[in-house]
């Protein structure tokens, strides 16, 4: 099967580990605009060095410029694109679809890949991405196999197969932003999903890692993805160690090429393993999706505690090995190797260990040496060092000549000396193969011979990996003035009772049960709310209700072509994450009739983008997560099927949790622990009253509405 193994490169050691292990491509970040801002990332000189090294070995390099960008940053962003491409990037990964269009218009040569943060999950979204100039989409992690098959017929498709999973649908997570003052869309996510919570439902009242998915490991099912048309298998982990990167590449290489996958999987578990892995959601949710009991690296199970400090095990433990101890599936502490024993080994631990405790190896000191490898490129050399002639070195069609060689008065240059010299490759990934080596009565000082070698190899690198030319293009950093002013009010709610507004956006509790009498309760232009994750089955379910509505409001890009296909107006939701004038103009030019700006912008930043048909969320609930799976392990037979729950963190903050029904099961929305209340500004007003039904009579004058505990969100301080 022809495919690409794509590995993460958070720093130079990880990049080299990926390449040496056999990755076909790597992806990395630069100092700015990377969705992993806390990774080491690459300055310009280190990126140039790595790009050359990778290209010498036939490995592609993709650069992540996949955070949201503000107007003030556009010059720096375009400069980053230009420099990355000129320095050797094979593709630029972006989240902002419309900014991508501007990049493609300015620099047609640049290859664009659409980040998973853009949430491409169906064929309509893929078609839209291709129209905007992207040649590949990185699939949303929730995309089912049936949708992948359709997308792969439209555009190149990249799918995650290994690594950490985001609990929220990509690009739609604002929990770190609103509850922790660090924006995930800016690469600064503090991972509040990895903290403990309890839910007010029987069986879930104790604190647990209620939102924390196990790590993804598609494993043998990777071939199903390839059969569906996926061309790139992506390993997540720009924050992880070189050993993990090497182990992950080895595992998928073994699966694809018939190697020892069992041993490779064992190495991978020891390198990093959260929750004993899940196949993810592409193949349907299973009970192992969440890692409720254990957070962080869980390693590989190697034995059980027997008596005192003795663990029965077949694993040959050694000094320096570290272990995690589980009791009843929950972590009770750590341990280190103390000494060998018959049929196992002894452990030291600060916690008392009990008979039957599970022992899991989390630090295997032999792993780095076992995973170390070196990838080389064979170069075929011909060397001619003859008395009275110019020294000549060639590799294939590349040839260099040097000064005429003097006659040796004693100790003439030998073939062995020439070969020994050129076997030194000065850190370059070359494996010299000598096709022809001739010398006769020639004299050359060792320093001069070394200088010839260094010169030849340096010039050979330039020949094999020629420098890119400069990108030509006029960069336009600002968009035309929007003009006009929007004074209308738009309201999102799942109950129109008593609602009067210019635009009413109906958010159904069950897509299959949208009743005309419910929609007709409110007074105003009617739009149907569609979530960011949407499948063909979801589309078929809402089609009968479309005649009830004047338009579509959607947090996903697929919504625009869907609306236009059914002759409906389109309202681009806050989930489009519009943060700059280029994106706003791009969305309008693409056909959006109404736009909602990013809810992470300040009022001042929103007002700078204000104009006719432009809205901003300023009152009601703030949706901070879309969960496209069941939080309760899909135990439908025992489910209480409530529409509302409360998610409580260890600080006592309460986050409303809303259940709604989609075509293939329940999904959930998490709202911020505090609602929003901002005074009127230059944009149109967008209210989310999904959770505040008692406020329906106050839609026209929310300043006077009794909204307990409300705050101003990012009105004063943008996290972008």
Describe the protein.
- The protein has 720 residues and is of the alpha/beta class.
- The protein folds into 4 domains: 4-165 and 213-271, Alpha-Beta Barrel (TIM Barrel), CATH 3.20.20; 300-371; 377-464, no CATH class; 489-622 and 676-695, Aldolase class I (TIM Barrel, Alpha-Beta Barrel), CATH 3.20.20.
- 23% of the residues lie in helices and 27% in strands.
- The protein has 18 helices and 35 strands.
- Strands 1-2-3-4-5-6-7-10 form an 8-stranded parallel beta barrel, surrounded by 7 helices. It has an 8-stranded parallel β-barrel with strand order 23-24-25-26-27-28-29-35. A 6-stranded antiparallel barrel has the order 11-12-15-14-13-16.
- Strand 32 (654-662) and strand 33 (665-671) form a beta hairpin.
- Helix 4 (97-106) crosses helix 17 and helix 9 packs antiparallel against helix 10 (261-271).
- It is globular and about 105 Å long.
- The two termini are 42 Å apart.
- The model has no long low-confidence stretch (mean pLDDT 93).
- Give me the side-by-side strand order of the main sheet: 1-2-3-4-5-6-7-10
Mean pLDDT metric: 93
Q: What is the name of the CATH architecture of the largest domain?
A: Alpha-Beta Barrel
Query: What would the CATH topology of the largest domain be?
Result: TIM Barrel
Radius of gyration, in angstroms, nearest whole number: 29 Å
Structural class: alpha/beta
The name of the CATH superfamily of the largest domain reads Aldolase class I
Q: Count of helices?
A: 18
Query: Biggest β-sheet: count, sense, barrel?
Result: 8 strands, parallel, barrel
């Amino acid at each position: 099967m022809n495919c690409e193994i794509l590995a993460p490169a958070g720093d130079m050691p990880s990049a080299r580990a990926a390449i040496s292990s056999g990755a076909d491509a790597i992806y990395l970040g630069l100092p700015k605009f990377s969705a992993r801002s806390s990774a080491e990332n690459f300055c310009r000189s280190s990126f140039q060095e790595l790009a050359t090294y990778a290209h010498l070995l036939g490995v592609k390099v993709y650069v992540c410029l996949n955070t949201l960008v503000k107007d003030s940053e556009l010059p720096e962003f375009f400069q980053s694109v230009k420099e990355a491409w000129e320095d050797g990037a094979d593709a630029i990964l972006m989240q902002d679809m419309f900014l991508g269009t501007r990049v493609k218009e300015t620099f047609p040569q640049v290859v664009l890949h659409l980040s998973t943060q853009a949430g491409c999950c169906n064929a309509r979204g893929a078609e839209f991405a291709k129209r905007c100039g992207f040649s590949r989409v990185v699939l949303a992690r929730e995309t089912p196999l049936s949708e992948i098959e359709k997308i792969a017929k439209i555009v190149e498709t990249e799918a995650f197969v290994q690594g950490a999973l985001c609990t929220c649908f990509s690009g739609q997570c604002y929990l770190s932003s609103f509850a922790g003052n660090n924006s995930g869309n800016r690469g600064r996510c503090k991972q509040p999903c990895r903290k403990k919570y309890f839910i007010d439902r029987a069986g879930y009242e104790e604190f647990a890692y209620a939102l924390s998915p196990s790590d993804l490991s598609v494993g043998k099912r990777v071939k199903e993805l390839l059969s569906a048309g996926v061309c790139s298998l992506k390993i997540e982990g720009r924050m992880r160690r070189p050993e993990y990167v090497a182990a992950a590449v080895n595992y998928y290489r073994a699966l694809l090429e018939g190697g020892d996958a069992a041993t490779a999987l064992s190495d991978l578990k020891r390198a990093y393993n959260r929750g004993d892995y899940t196949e993810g959601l592409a193949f349907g949710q299973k009970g192992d999706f969440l890692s409720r009991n254990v957070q962080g690296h869980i390693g590989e199970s190697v034995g059980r505690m027997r008596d005192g400090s003795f663990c029965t095990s077949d694993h040959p433990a050694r000094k320096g090995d570290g272990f995690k101890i589980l009791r009843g599936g929950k972590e009770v502490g750590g341990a280190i190797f103390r000494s060998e024993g018959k049929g196992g080994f002894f452990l030291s631990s600060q916690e008392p260990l009990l008979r039957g405790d599970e022992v899991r190896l989390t630090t295997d000191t032999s792993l780095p040496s076992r995973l170390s490898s070196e990838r080389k490129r064979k170069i075929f050399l011909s060397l001619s060092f003859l008395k009275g002639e110019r020294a000549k070195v060639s590799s294939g069609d590349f040839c260099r000549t040097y000064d005429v060689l003097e006659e040796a008065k004693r100790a003439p240059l030998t073939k062995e000396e020439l070969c020994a010299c050129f076997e030194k490759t000065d850190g370059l990934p070359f494996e010299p193969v000598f096709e022809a080596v001739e010398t006769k009565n020639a004299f050359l000082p060792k320093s001069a011979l070394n200088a010839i070698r260094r010169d030849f190899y340096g010039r050979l690198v330039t020949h094999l990996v020629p420098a890119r030319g400069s990108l030509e293009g006029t960069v336009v950093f600002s968009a035309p003035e929007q003009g006009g002013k929007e004074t209308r009010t738009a309201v999102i709610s799942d109950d129109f009772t008593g609602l009067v507004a210019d635009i009413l956006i109906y958010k159904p509790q069950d897509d299959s049960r949208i009743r005309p009498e419910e929609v007709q309760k409110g007074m105003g232009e009617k739009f149907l709310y569609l979530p960011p994750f949407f499948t063909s089955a979801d589309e078929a379910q809402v089609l009968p209700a479309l005649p009830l509505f004047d338009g579509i409001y959607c947090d996903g890009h697929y919504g625009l072509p869907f609306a236009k296909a059914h002759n409906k107006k389109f309202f681009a939701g806050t989930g489009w994450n519009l943060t700059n004038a280029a994106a706003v103009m791009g969305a309008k030019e693409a056909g959006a009739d109404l736009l909602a700006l990013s809810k992470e912008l300040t009022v001042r930043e929103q007002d700078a983008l204000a104009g006719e048909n432009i809205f901003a969320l300023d009152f009601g609930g703030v949706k901070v997560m879309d969960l496209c799976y069941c939080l309760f392990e899909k135990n439908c037979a025992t489910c209480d099927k409530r529409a509302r729950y409360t998610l409580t963190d260890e600080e006592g903050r309460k986050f409303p949790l809303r259940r709604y029904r989609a075509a293939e099961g329940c999904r959930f929305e998490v709202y911020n622990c505090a609602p929003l209340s901002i005074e009127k500004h230059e944009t149109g007003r967008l209210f989310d009253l999904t959770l505040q039904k008692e406020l329906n009579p106050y839609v026209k004058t929310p300043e006077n509405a009794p909204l307990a505990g409300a705050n101003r969100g990012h009105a004063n301080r943008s996290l972008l």
